[in-house]
Specification:
Number of helices: 16
Shape: globular
Strand content: 5-15%
CATH superfamily of the largest domain: P-loop containing nucleotide triphosphate hydrolases
Radius of gyration: 24 Å
Largest sheet: 5 strands, parallel
Order of helices and strands: HEHEHHHHEHEHEHEHHEHHEHHEEH
Bound molecules: adenosine-5'-diphosphate, magnesium ion
Oligomer: single chain
Mean pLDDT: 92
Distance between the termini: 42 Å
CATH architecture of the largest domain: 3-Layer(aba) Sandwich
Low-confidence stretches: none
CATH topology of the largest domain: Rossmann fold
């Protein structure tokens, strides 16, 4: 029998979530609105650091509040992903390019920006604005060293369209935060603005993991004081439930409570995994109702994907020695639901040479964030159920030779 074609999946693994599918995060959003958007809109600059693990939803929340800022607070949003930036000049180039692309929600603003920055526009193509790479590269250092005047001019050029201030997001700072100049750059920008006779109403938002913020502080201690830190935690069970219900409902599918419970349990509040599992369930299902069986299948598919992308690349590769692998397999065999173990229970099943390396193994697994220490002496816990499941699956597939 030929199955009817499926419509579009309501899940977005690997992409910031579109506004319609965004769920939860009420307390963080309220905080950003009160201390960020409303303040900037009233003329007061502020600097926020959106902090959380990879895949927890930083870019998504930044996108969401930028939209709110444009709609309700007269803030012009510029979104600069710094993933491939290493130097301050790179940062200048990225911000310039991001400015050129800004205003997408408001054609009038987009038009003004692109005519002001026309010299950086390459060929106007069917696909929208292209960039004149050479001109951009040439002026990037000037934009970087004159960041504040550049941002001020952006606002001035848009005043007539009702813009009151600027909301600049610097996302994916993990590369550039390793550059000591970055911390100084940020502190300099914020201080110069604060001391200006008439400060630019600038909401500056950095998104990154906690280590990046600590790294910046190590390079330049005073930067610590400027950040209003917004922590993004794993989603709560209620947020996850809302997420799955809303997503399936949007494509006229129903999802049963025990299916939600299972998908939520294995996603453990990580939106990235929720999208993977949800997507797998969407494709798995044949009758428009996601039941527990669909959810079980989906969890296996998702575990395989998480494993191939994360565990294979970061864990198995890092565990070079054969003994490490066999230790891991022995732990894995304790079953996919055992989320914790006692050191001595594992130790008793190890060979002599494995036993010698056991300590290093545990340290390494902690650095890789696969395990963490438990409250009891000698207790270790897996951080993620999905990773745990994948390791178990691997240990079944590869019986030791
Ligand atoms: N509030 C949310 N509602 C629904 N999906 C979300 C939400 N936040 C993040 N996601 C999804 O989770 C995944 C990771 O989100 P992302 O914002 O890219 O995380 P980060 O920037 O922290 O790495 C993406 O697939 C995104 O669509
Ligand atoms: Mg991101």
């Amino acid at each position: 029998m030929i199955r009817p074609l499926k419509g579009k999946s309501p899940f977005y693994p690997g992409q910031p979530v579109p506004r319609e599918s965004f769920v939860g995060r009420m307390s963080q959003i309220n905080r950003i609105v009160e201390r960020g958007l409303a303040q900037a809109s009233a003329g007061k600059p502020n600097t926020m650091y959106v902090q959380g693990e990879y895949g927890i939803g930083k870019s998504s929340i930044a996108g969401f509040v930028q939209w709110l800022g444009e709609r309700d607070y007269g803030l012009h949003g510029i979104y600069a992903p710094l993933g491939s930036a290493e130097t301050i000049e790179d940062l200048g180039a990225t911000v310039l390019q991001a400015t050129l692309r800004s205003g997408a929600l408001n054609p009038n603003r987009a038009e003004r920006v692109s005519s002001w920055l026309a010299k950086y526009v390459g060929q106007q193509s069917f696909f929208g604005v292209t960039i004149h790479a050479e001109a951009l590269k040439k002026d990037a250092p000037a934009v970087a060293s004159g960041m504040l005047p550049f941002l001020r001019e952006t606002v001035d050029r848009l005043k007539e369209t009702g813009v009151k201030g600027l909301f600049l997001v610097l996302d994916e700072i993990n590369g550039i935060s390793a550059n000591p100049k970055f911390a100084h750059f940020i502190k300099g920008l914020v201080d110069t603005n604060a001391l200006a006779g008439e400060p630019l109403p600038l909401l500056l938002m950095l998104c990154g993991v906690e280590e990046c913020r600590r790294e910046m502080i190590r390079y330049h201690q005073p930067v610590d004081r400027i950040f209003d830190v917004v922590e993004i935690e794993p989603m709560t069970p209620d947020e996850m439930k809302e997420f799955f219900e809303k997503a399936f409902e949007s494509v006229q599918m129903r999802v049963e409570p025990d299916a939600i419970a299972l998908m939520a349990e294995y996603s453990a509040g990580f939106p990235k995994i929720m999208h993977l599992v949800g997507d797998a369930a969407f494709w798995q299902d044949e009758d428009g109702i996601i039941d527990k069986n669909d959810a079980v299948q989906a969890v296996f598919v998702a575990a395989d994907e998480v494993g191939k992308k994360y565990v294979d690349q970061q864990v198995y590769k890092a565990l070079r020695s054969q003994d490490y692998h066999s230790i891991l397999a022995k732990i894995a065999k304790m079953g996919p639901d055992t989320m914790s173990f006692q050191r001595r229970d594992v130790e008793s099943g190890l060979t002599l040479s494995e036993r010698k390396k056991f300590n290093n193994f545990l340290q390494k697994m902690k650095t890789l964030k696969v395990l963490r220490s438990g409250d009891m002496q000698g207790e270790y816990l897996f951080n993620m159920r999905m990773v745990r499941l994948y390791i178990w699956l691997q240990s079944l597939e590869k019986p030791k030779s």
